[in-house]
Amino acid sequence: YTQVRHYQMSNSTSMKIQGLQELKNELKQFAPRVQKNILTSSLRAEASNVQKTAKKLVPKNSGNLKKSIKVKKRRTKNKNSIYFSVGLSFGKTAKNDGWYGRLVEFGTSKTKAQPFFRPAFDTLKTTGLQNIQKKMKQNIDKNRYKNNISGNVL
Prior knowledge:
Layout: E1 2-8, E2 11-17, H1 21-27, H2 32-57, H3 64-67, E3 69-74, E4 83-88, H4 101-106, H5 117-146
Antiparallel strand pairs: 1-2, 3-4
Helix pairs in contact: 2-5
């Protein structure tokens, strides 16, 4: 069971990936560390797709908000879960401070909303699972070749 969450500022949107029994069985032939690497790179690729789409949709005034959209791998209490978030970097330590992103996304009393995170997630929500499956198959095949493990090419 793997969990992917795409975050949208204050409101969160999550996607749980369950099943995928065929890929799950294929992963069992690898060491736990390799299994985790396969899953991590597959999920990071899809989180990056959400990031790229959000960057395309963000209103461009200075470019600062666009540059502040980041993908981060988060720690979880459950060692069997992999968790990525796509969000804005902000604060004193952020190179590009996107603190005002939620004001752009949701609007204010004086400005209308210009959503970019929600549409990015919505456009990829239907293809996201297929993209993750495809990337997992590629990673499994690459690691099978790398580790000289025979088996069916998915």
